[in-house]
Write a structure and sequence with these properties.
Number of strands of chain A: 10
Order of helices and strands of chain A: EEHEEEEEHEHEHHEH
Number of helices of chain A: 6
Distance between the termini of chain A: 64 Å
Oligomer: homodimer
Structural class of chain A: alpha+beta
Radius of gyration of chain A: 21 Å
Strand content of chain A: 25-35%
Chain lengths: 195, 195
């Protein structure tokens, strides 16, 4: 008579519950360190190598091959348009993080979602980047996220799910609130290392 | 006898100068709008479609095919690890934006760069995302960026170039300072639209 719905929204609830139990017992398992290295190629084109990370108590080296992701700029911004630009990647990170936060937390609450589509846009005044006006910030003035949420859910449940996104998404948190960023330069680079 | 060094660091200085002249004459040309739509697939997997944007006085539709970029989560975070996760994409956006900002502004100052490598990392306590401790933020506690800059440049010039990155990078600006984000839900989604 036991009904097992162990996977909701593609999230394995047994494994999610195991993670939470483990972290309660050993809070240090919650420490994660994500990282990458990026290499400039030419003009607005550069490439990131993304592979290992630290989490759940140790180095995670399960990725056999690294992810290689590029940035470029469109022609009007003097690039060769081989990839999205960093601002578009910021929106991509934000869209994905909001979505995953909604999906995982909805699963934990037993809310089954049938579809999520998000549309994001950001407005920017290029005078900030160009340094033509010190009163204009280089970044987006604001970002607008529109969410289409589909499922057999009440409006109140949908609002609750959207709030999971804004409350628990790491990227949403950082983009809205800001993060301390430490910038350091290695002055002793040999040409061989940088190549 | 005229010496033409019209391209430095892959940046066409004539075109950069034209952009600045145009924006001084018509400041509205500096308005850019970047955007994307993202669709949830399953669990921690979702996909962004990136194509047109607004800039330089009109819709830019020069990209013939859209860029399709995915987010996923590694197995330890209950995903299928088909793509970097949103936190890694945030670091990718930040790395690329700092680099391009250094490259373009260095070019404008006549500083020739031979190589840039950046390494980024962010530390995160998963208890924030999981909602296990309201005092812990979901996002990175801090981000560390290390820059290796190579070229026939004095230490002072290298420091100046790094400062171009932190002063003019749109993503650096947003990640350090935060941006107003407006979140709205379309409650009237029909299943056909969300599919």
């Amino acid at each position: 008579m036991e009904k097992t719905t162990s996977v909701i929204n593609g999230v394995n609830l047994k494994r999610l519950s195991d993670i939470i139990t483990l972290i309660y017992a050993q809070p240090e398992l919650a420490h994660f360190n994500f990282r990458l290295s990026n290499q400039w190629v030419d003009g607005g084109y550069n490439q990131s190598v993304i592979k290992d990370f630290y989490g759940a108590g140790g180095e995670d080296t399960t990725r056999e091959t690294p992810f290689i992701v590029s940035n470029d700029e469109p022609e009007v911004l003097l690039g060769t348009d081989l990839s999205p630009n960093p601002l578009e990647f910021l929106l991509h990170a934000l869209a994905g993080c909001i979505t995953t936060s909604m999906v995982y937390h909805a699963a934990a609450h037993g809310y089954k979602i049938d579809g999520i589509k998000t549309s994001l846009e950001g407005n920017l005044d290029l005078k900030g980047f160009l340094g033509l006006d010190g009163d204009i910030r280089p970044g987006f003035k604001e970002i607008h996220i529109r969410i289409d949420l589909d499922g057999d859910l009440t409006d109140q449940q949908k609002e609750e799910i959207v709030q999971f996104g804004s409350s628990f998404s790491p990227v949403f948190d950082m983009v809205t609130t800001g993060v301390p960023v430490r910038l350091s330069m290695n002055k002793k680079t040999s040409p061989a290392e940088a190549a």
